[in-house]
Amino acid sequence: MNVLFDNLSLYGNGFLGTIKLFLVAAVGSLILGTVLAGARVSPVPVLRSFGTLYVNTIRNTPLTLVLFFFAFAYPRLEIADVSFFWRACIGLILYTAAFVCEVVRSGVNTVPVGQAEASRALGFTFGQTMTEVVMPQAIRSVVPPLTNVQIALLKNTTIAAGFSVLEAGGIYANLSERGYNVFVGLLWVALGFLVLVLPLTLLQRNLDRRWSTAR
Amino acid sequence: MTATTGTPMISMSGVDKHFGDLHVLRDINLEVDAGQVVVVLGPSGSGKSTLCRAINRLEPIDNGTIAIDGEELPAEGKALAALRADVGMVFQSFNLFAHKTILENVMLAPVKVRKANKADAEKKALALLERVGIANQKDKYPAQLSGGQQQRVAIARALAMDPKVMLFDEPTSALDPEMVNEVLDVMTGLAADGMTMVVITHEMGFARRAANRVLFMADGEIVEDASPETFFSAPNSDRAKDFLGKILTH
Fold first, then answer.
1. What residues of chain B lie within 8 A of the CB of A133, using their CB?
2. CB-closest option in A114, A121, A128 to B56
3. Superfamily (CATH) of domain A16-166
4. Pairing state between β B165-169 and B87-90
5. pLDDT higher than 70, residue B2
6. What is the pLDDT of residue A162?
7. Residue B198, strand partner residues
8. Could you tell me which chain A residue has the CA closest to the CA of B162?
């Protein structure tokens, strides 16, 4: 217990960092992933190829490499000065979006063709058909796998510790410097993640229940 | 709904369409005047559904031209979307938006496509639902309604766009027999109000009662084009006689 209470502010700041990274990356990856899924099912060949290329490149790259790129290679490109935190967010968003894209695309395939035909017949453009009719139904049908991807993202934030963004995964390193029992310290970190995943699981259950009655 | 004199509401000339090797539409030439109710009959596989879907380019064609109210169908894109907004379509499988309530289904296109304001769109949607007899179900979702009710909502949804033409692609074929009439009654009412309609159907009663004109299709061609009286009492072609013989004896 001492490990936790003696270092409460370390734990607090660590998990706060995790939560901030997660929230930004979750929102960003859901938006980018849905747009990419739209590109992959669009009638424009260039967009389709871009989506496929993106997914196949990013999905097959280890997250560590993606984050290392933003940590060490990006500053040398001298494009714009971005803080470590935001570079970690960008890396996580780009990486997770590839997985979100594939989940949402499988959701699009569950929406009957007639739904898109009806909206085209009413005069909707492709973009409107996607945003008003297809995507809302596609996302409803993939809430459980989408939650999986987001839980994986939550845990992937620990890799950002690799380049000095303070988050929960980096707590143990600080503890060992201060001479505490690292093993016990890590158990508290694991418990912390369990607590963080809980709201996601509850949200998934809630959305599933609400949306299944609507169909 | 107003008729512009002179130009036909729908005109198709030299329309050809293939599905692979199958020649589904063969040199279709057709003009439908404003206010006309045209019923298209024919055995399955004769191309009547494809004809209907080609009119708003849900099915692209290989050759020929199609014009709505004098305006030729443009290629895929914004202009085509704008033209489709003027052509109402009712499908065999209803295709109501599953994630929207009945009221939202009817309001969505006017608000998003016509940029109508919400209050006006809602008022109009309620009036249309009243007209097709389902105003009391407005807050339910499509899956909670019977097939006949869903199809009437689909008609209201199409009418909410004030279409110049209504296309019906076998609107009663997926319905239980006791629900067919409630949908046909709505369609008969529309016909009486002067709506230009193209109706693909197997309902001979509706054809006799509401149509100004019957087209009989077989193998991708329009074989007969006659008034209902002429078609049902004295069909010209052997194909039509054969078809009528099969369905009227049952």
1. 97
2. A121
3. MetI-like (1.10.3720.10)
4. parallel
5. no
6. 65
7. B38, B167
8. A122
Q: Domain locations in chain A?
A: 16-166
DSSP A146-201: HHHHHHHHHHHGGGGGGGT---GGGHHHHHHHHT--HHHHHHHHHHHHHHHHHHHH
Q: Take residue B249 and report the two structure tokens written for it.
A: 């004896």
**Is-contact A83 A165, C-beta < 8 A?**
no
Q: What is the ipTM of this complex?
A: 0.88
Only one residue has tokens 């939560």, namely: A19
Distance of alpha carbon A120 from the chain centroid? 32
CB atoms B85 and A122 under 8 Å: yes
**Among candidate residues A206, A201, A197, the one with its CA nearest the CA of residue A22:** A197
pLDDT tens-digit series, residues B171-211: 999 998 889 999 999 999 999 999 999 999 999 999 999 99
Distance CA A51, CA A101 (A): 9
A169-203 residue pLDDT tens: 777 777 777 877 878 888 888 888 899 899 999 99
**CB distance A121–B84 less than 8 Å?**
yes
| Residue whose pair of structure tokens reads 């395939």 in the numeric block | A109
Q: Where are the alpha helices (H) located in chain A, listed in sequence order?
A: 2-6, 8-40, 45-59, 63-68, 74-77, 84-108, 113-121, 126-128, 135-141, 143-156, 171-178, 182-213
Q: Are strands B10-19 and B22-32 parallel, antiparallel or unpaired?
A: antiparallel
Element (H or E) spanning B226, and its range?
strand B221-226
Tokens 């006006």 sit at which residue?
B120
- How would residue A215 be classed by pLDDT, with cut points 50, 70 and 90? low
Residue A113 touches partner B, C-beta closer than 8 Å:
no
- Please check whether residue A85 is in contact with residue A18, taking contact to mean a CB–CB distance below 8 angstroms: no
With beta carbons less than 8 A apart as the criterion, state whether A157 and A22 touch: yes
CA angle, A58 as apex, A52 and A64 as ends, to 5°? Answer: 175
Geometric angle at alpha carbon A170, from A169 and A171, rounded to 5°: 95
Task: Write out chain B residues lying below 8 Å of A125, CB-based.
Answer: 77-78, 81
- Walk across the sheet containing B63-68 and list its strands: B22-32, B10-19, B63-68, B71-72
Instruction: Please give the Cα distance from B36 to B42 (Å, whole number).
Output: 19
Backbone angles phi, psi at B220, to 5 degrees: 80, 5
- The helix (H) or strand (E) run that includes residue B230 is helix B228-233
Q: What pLDDT is stored for residue B1 in this prediction?
A: 45
Q: What percent of chain B has pLDDT over 70?
A: 97
- The model's pLDDT over A16-52, given as tens digits with 9 standing for 90+, comes to 888 999 999 999 999 999 999 999 999 899 999 999 9
Name which of A43, A120, A128 is nearest B58 (Cβ-Cβ).
A120
